[in-house]
Write a structure and sequence with these properties.
The protein is α+β, with helices and mostly antiparallel strands and 126 residues long. The chain is 28% helix and 35% strand. The chain has helices spanning 4-17, 47-54, 108-120; strands at residues 22-29, 34-37, 59-62, 65-73, 76-80, 87-93, 96-102. Strands 2-1-7-6-5-4-3 form a seven-stranded antiparallel sheet, with helices on both faces. The chain starts with a helix and ends in a 6-residue tail after the last helix. 34% of the residues are buried. The mean pLDDT is 93.
Length: 126
């Protein structure tokens, strides 16, 4: 098992140093269990909705804001808020999904690639 606290600390430091503009991170298992979430982002009652996006749902409401899927590829899924309230990025891995809230000015493609590198470290480790 990965030491989740160290994993998230490393991710946060790396994101800050590379100016990725990620404001919140969560890890959800394939079963819908919330493994971790940063203190500033409560998605504890929305894990099933997150898994639906991974399975093809085209929108999700997180913390009262609606996000529409704008891009989907082998690395993951990007959903953006039409009112400019930021983006949610979903990166599946073997055993779950790494979910992140990215600020409105974030380069979502860059953030997705960044998060994919971290999600690979979680493969099979939950």
């Amino acid at each position: 098992m990965v030491d989740i606290k160290n994993f998230i600390d490393d991710l946060g430091i790396d994101a800050f140093e590379t100016n990725i503009k990620i404001a919140g991170v969560a890890i959800v298992s394939d079963s819908g269990r919330l493994v971790f979430q940063t203190d500033n982002w409560d998605i504890s009652n929305q894990t099933k909705a997150i898994l639906k996006v991974i399975k093809g749902e085209q929108s999700i409401v997180l913390n009262g804001a609606k996000f529409l899927v704008t891009a989907m590829n082998n690395n993951g899924i990007i959903a953006s808020n039409e009112s400019g309230m930021g983006h949610t990025i979903f990166v599946p891995f073997q055993g779950g999904v790494l979910v992140s809230y990215a600020m409105p000015q974030a380069d979502t493609s860059k953030a997705l690639d960044f998060l994919k590198g971290y999600a690979l470290k979680l493969n099979g480790k939950l």
